[in-house]
Amino acid sequence: ILLSLVVLLFASDPQTSVVVGFSVDGLVPSLRSPSRATLQLQKENIDKDTAKNPSFPFSSEELVEMAKEYIKNPSPDWWDDDEFVFRGPVIGPLVKKDLVSTLQANEDLKKAFPDLQSNAFGFTADDPIEPNRVWFFVRPRGTFSGPFQHPTNGIIEPTNAPYIAPPEIRSVTFNEKGKIKYQTVGYVADRFTGDTTGGRGAIFGQYAVMGQEIDGNPGSWSTIFLQKLSEFLPSVPKSYSSKSDLPVWWKDERMGA
Length: 257
Fold this sequence. Notes:
Layout: H1 2-12, E1 19-22, E2 29-32, H2 36-46, H3 60-72, E3 85-87, H4 96-105, H5 108-112, E4 121-124, E5 133-138, E6 141-144, E7 148-150, E8 154-156, E9 161-164, E10 168-174, E11 180-188, H6 202-209, H7 221-230
Parallel strand pairs: 3-11
Antiparallel strand pairs: 1-2, 4-5, 5-10, 6-9, 7-8, 10-11
């Protein structure tokens, strides 16, 4: 008990410069002075906001609130006309005009899953490399209770199948104008949580629940073939934009899957 009180005292006193650890046997707490590297890391954590680009007009807190507002009220108006790029594991890069067309082609998904909830949580703008990027998780839930007009297969009748998606990591990156420059979706964090999508994220999960399974893994030959084929089928939404349409800041050469 006495040792526990000592540990609590040192751990709770902000003026005490010690690190609480444990000895090898895991039973006796040990107190050691912090290393120079630890002190430097603590200083960097405290000063992380001042280490950001001083010319960037938004704080971490403001970026998080902006991202939450975007998720609550999504609209292409948030996307920068010239800089915006959308990317998923196998979809994209898509510029604004192409993503708008793709979303319009999949408008029936709202009718197919009228009760869809993204359940976004865990918003953070503490990225040490990209301080203007907001990361967050989603755990979508819904029901396939409405008809879906498939781009090539006609109408798919509802089955009332539950849409239970795996936890997924998403992000939005803002520019100095407060517009979204880059958005990512579909990166599954754990595909062993009892989902009904076969571990698929984003739109691939919804298609799987409707019985239209598509391989959402990067490098999938079947998906690459379908994406190439879609270039010759106007009714099929684009999987990626023309390289000539991509903004100059986008340097990655990989397209689609």
